[in-house]
Design a protein that fits this description.
Elements: H1 10-25, H2 32-41, H3 50-60, H4 63-68, H5 71-78, H6 82-105, H7 112-123, E1 130-136, E2 142-149, H8 154-157, H9 159-168, E3 173-179, H10 189-203, E4 208-215, E5 220-225
Helix pairs in contact: 1-2, 2-3, 5-6, 6-7
């Protein structure tokens, strides 16, 4: 008995070509929606995900906006399924871990770009203003960090706690950072005032405020830096 030929998967050749272009040229070889399409193909192997990739890019504005989207938003708004939503979140967290490890290995004073990239990845896409404290040792390397929901004003209230945690982890310096959910990377007069107050308060504990960073998904701006 002759069985009917299996129906050819029209998507398989297209996905293979996307993979080959990525292997040759990285993301430079793909348009943004194609990069998202290729990623989704690993979670949704038997469906044409190009329309979905384009819709996600349109609704979230960019790859960064998509990566910052909460899992529940991806599932509820687009119905892409838990596996796909978790995959997108996993990629983001792996990127954050990669940047953290690069930042920990770098001398912050000499290579602050690594620290700024790490902070922007951790804070830039948050919808709630969050205060981040990074602890630096005598070799100018990251040895730990904390995240606290709320505004930078809390730093004034918790200077003693910041100093206590710095002493516990043998830190000699601190970087503080906070995000502007509005996307406007412009320090307010209060941001500048708080930076000065926290810097002076930490000096009494023998700890340097190396820098205060203001971040959005696409920018990072320094609000005063201490001496190296």
């Amino acid at each position: 008995m002759n069985l009917p030929a299996a129906k050819k998967d029209d998507n398989s050749g297209h996905r293979q070509r996307l993979r080959e272009r990525f292997c040759r040229s990285g993301l430079n070889g793909l348009q943004d929606y194609e990069a998202i399409e290729l990623l989704l193909s690993y979670a949704i192997p038997r469906r044409d995900v190009k329309p979905l990739a384009k819709a996600l890019l349109r609704d979230y504005g960019s790859i960064a906006g998509l990566m910052d989207a909460p899992v529940y938003s991806l599932i509820e708004k687009h119905g892409i399924g838990n596996s796909s939503a978790v995959l997108i979140r996993l990629v983001r967290e792996i990127c954050a871990s990669y940047l953290e490890q690069r930042a920990r290995a770098a001398e912050i004073v000499e290579s602050s770009k690594d620290a700024e990239d790490f902070v922007r990845m951790k804070l830039g896409g948050r919808q709630q203003e969050t205060l981040m404290t990074i602890f630096i040792n005598s070799r100018n390397r990251i040895i730990g960090y904390d995240l606290e929901p709320g505004t930078v004003d809390q730093a004034v209230v918790y200077v003693r706690e910041l100093a206590r945690r710095a002493v516990l982890c043998n830190a000699t310096g601190i970087i503080i950072a906070h995000n502007h959910p509005s996307g406007l990377c412009v320090p307010s007069p209060e941001d500048i005032r708080i930076t000065e107050l926290v810097g002076k308060a930490l000096e009494t504990f023998g700890i340097r405020l190396l820098c205060h960073l203001l971040v959005t998904p696409s920018e990072c701006r320094r609000i005063g830096c201490g001496p190296a």
